Recover the amino acids of this structure.
């Protein structure tokens, strides 16, 4: 992989969106990702075979490939951090380290989309989107949200699992919209911001999209936990609900001391 990697690294690319599939993990390296990401207007998405990489991290036979992707120090740290971890904990740690690696390469915004096996609930693989600009992140976030096979309180799961479409009784109890409302009250305590500012300052590295923020703020306004300007009765209604365009100001109360 070294020859094409050097070849791509030497090319100054025009703005482009690149998808690459390394057919496992052998061709997936920091060098090849950086080659496709380095130039202005260049974003990429790649196939991340989590199952195989998860197994390969602890296997010295694949040490070269893992170091090419994560770097030697990060691989050594992963081997320690992953010991005796439950599967869902391993997945979260591996993804966090992958995101950190991509950010070091200049990928300021990282967005993974998870695919689960049709035979069970284990993760099969991810599609990982990487961008240097928030606009690309916002566009891809909306696309991935629409392709999610399930939602909790309207918050997309950013995952696809065929069984979710035929098992509506498997309702999640995580209630992520409630968590968003509580987090907004804490994060923006004592401040007044527009809807646009709230979204831009909070949504990165979260599963929330703009419609979730509008729902959360509308709920907070209805329960008198925040005040909006202009108030609900002065705003245009959409499907019976007061609209919340980007310019609406939201005043958050200060937290009690």
């Amino acid at each position: 992989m070294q020859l094409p990697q050097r070849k791509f690294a030497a090319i100054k690319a025009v703005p482009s969106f690149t998808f690459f599939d390394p057919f496992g993990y052998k061709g997936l390296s920091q060098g090849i990702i950086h080659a496709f990401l380095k130039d202005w207007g260049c974003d990429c998405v790649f196939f991340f075979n989590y199952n195989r990489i998860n197994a390969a991290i602890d296997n010295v036979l694949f040490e070269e490939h893992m170091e090419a992707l994560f770097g030697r120090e990060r691989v050594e740290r992963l081997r320690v951090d992953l010991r005796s971890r439950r599967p869902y904990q391993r997945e979260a740690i591996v993804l966090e380290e992958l995101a950190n690696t991509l950010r070091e390469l200049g990928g300021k915004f990282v967005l993974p989309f998870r695919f689960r096996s049709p035979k069970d609930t284990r993760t099969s693989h991810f599609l990982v989107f990487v961008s240097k600009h928030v606009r690309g992140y916002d566009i891809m976030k909306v696309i991935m949200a629409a392709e999610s096979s399930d939602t909790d309180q309207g918050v997309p799961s950013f995952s696809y699992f065929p069984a979710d479409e035929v098992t509506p009784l498997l309702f999640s109890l995580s209630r992520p919209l409630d968590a968003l409302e509580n987090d907004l009250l804490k994060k923006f305590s004592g401040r007044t911001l527009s809807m646009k500012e709230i979204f831009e300052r909070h949504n990165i590295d979260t599963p929330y999209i703009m419609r979730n923020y509008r729902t959360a703020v509308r709920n907070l306004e209805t329960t008198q936990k925040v005040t909006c300007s202009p108030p609900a009765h002065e705003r245009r209604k959409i499907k019976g609900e007061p609209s919340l365009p980007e310019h609406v100001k939201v005043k958050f109360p200060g937290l009690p001391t």
User: Anything to note?
Assistant: Residues 2-165 form one domain.
